[in-house]
Amino acid sequence: MPHPFIPYGRQSVSEADIEAVCAVLRSDWLTQGPTLPRFEAGVAARCGAAHAVAVNSATSALHLACLALGLGPGDTLWTSPNTFVASANCARYCGALVDFVDIDPKSYNLCPVALERKLERAAQTGSLPKVLVPVHFSGQPCAMERIAELAAAYGVRVVEDASHAIGASYQEEPVGNCRYSDLTVFSFHPVKIVTTGEGGMLLTQSPELNERLVRLRSHGITRDPALMEGEPDGDWYYQQLELGFNYRMTDLQAALGLSQLERLEEFVERRRLLAERYRELLEGLPLVLPWQASEARSAWHLFVVRLDPERARLTRRQLFDQLRQAGVGVNVHYQPVHTQPYYRRLGFAPGMFPQAEAYYAQALTLPLYPGLEEAQQDRVVGLVREALS
Ligand SMILES: *Cc1c(COP(=O)(O)O)cnc(C)c1O
């Protein structure tokens, strides 16, 4: 009998999760009802943030983050080239420019040294960015203390794209507490650590940013008389103060998220255990295994290995194809964003961010998710061993 396909990532939905969603379906509120603020409060408390604003995706969250920080035409946002396109696209939605800071070849995260040099040059040419988006790639937190120091020195606002990193910690504190940023964004897409089907969240310590995000999430409308221009006509009255969107999360999604949040520690612990197991089982092969910062604990969204071209007798492409043919859903994260046709049309070209490009040429993501059984993991490792021996 053929083995069932093993994906690179997969949600873990329990009976309790299903019950929680069904309870909302039987209730009076399907969207933005009483469950949404409970989910927001749950994540805020878990992460040590004063405010949390749930939205319908991390992409929407990144867009609102840019708007709330005043990013617009004439401004620039910098991010890592080793990320999903959404980390850069959010600036384009606001009519702003995008540029990239190359990665550190060890952590695969935005490199603080490259950032320092690029900021120095930009200061001289009057082209400093307004917003910087470090991405906690694979769940491994960026060097946030240094990044925040540099950002503060040059007056740059910081948005952490923590789509991979709910449940991770940095300097013994949870990612999401915004100690080193203005805002942190989480994704609840099914392959991420915690899911709501589709969904995202913004965390901040700032009451002003929170107020702005809540308004932008729902058409730019407020029902709070204190925020209105003039007096309300009556209880039905609302005002649209600016141009916002419908980026609301439903209560169905919030119920799933709230129920999943109870298993966050379990999810991350299981991922950590499997990552440790990969590390032991892959020892001695011509692969570069994930590096871990001493001051951080990864949420282990992805387990990425790099094929050492000096020692391996086949290419990444061949290894990828062999594993896929054997029913293992290996993947590649990420094609450097600046090499996408859309970004090439904006003037970017291969060669501009050599570390991200060199990393991409060798990278392979192995399956990692809480429901991955050890026997399945053994099978993946066996196939990798066979291909590389
Ligand atoms: C998944 C992801 C996003 C987008 O998340 P959605 O919730 O699917 O919009 C943004 N940034 C990174 C790094 C991601 O991995």
From TrEMBL:
GO terms for biological process: polysaccharide biosynthetic process. It comes from the Bacteria. Keywords: Pyridoxal phosphate. Coiled coil: none annotated. One of its GO terms (molecular function) is pyridoxal phosphate binding. Transmembrane segments: none annotated. The modification N6-(pyridoxal phosphate)lysine is found at residue 192. SUPFAM superfamilies: PLP-dependent transferases (SSF53383). The active site is at 192 (proton acceptor). InterPro entries: DegT/StrS_aminotransferase, PseC, PyrdxlP-dep_Trfase, PyrdxlP-dep_Trfase_major, PyrdxlP-dep_Trfase_small. Belongs to the DegT/DnrJ/EryC1 family. PANTHER family: DTDP-4-AMINO-4,6-DIDEOXYGALACTOSE TRANSAMINASE, TRANSAMINASE. This is UDP-4-amino-4,6-dideoxy-N-acetyl-beta-L-altrosami ne transaminase. The lineage of its organism: Bacteria, Pseudomonadati, Thermodesulfobacteriota, Desulfuromonadia, Geobacterales.
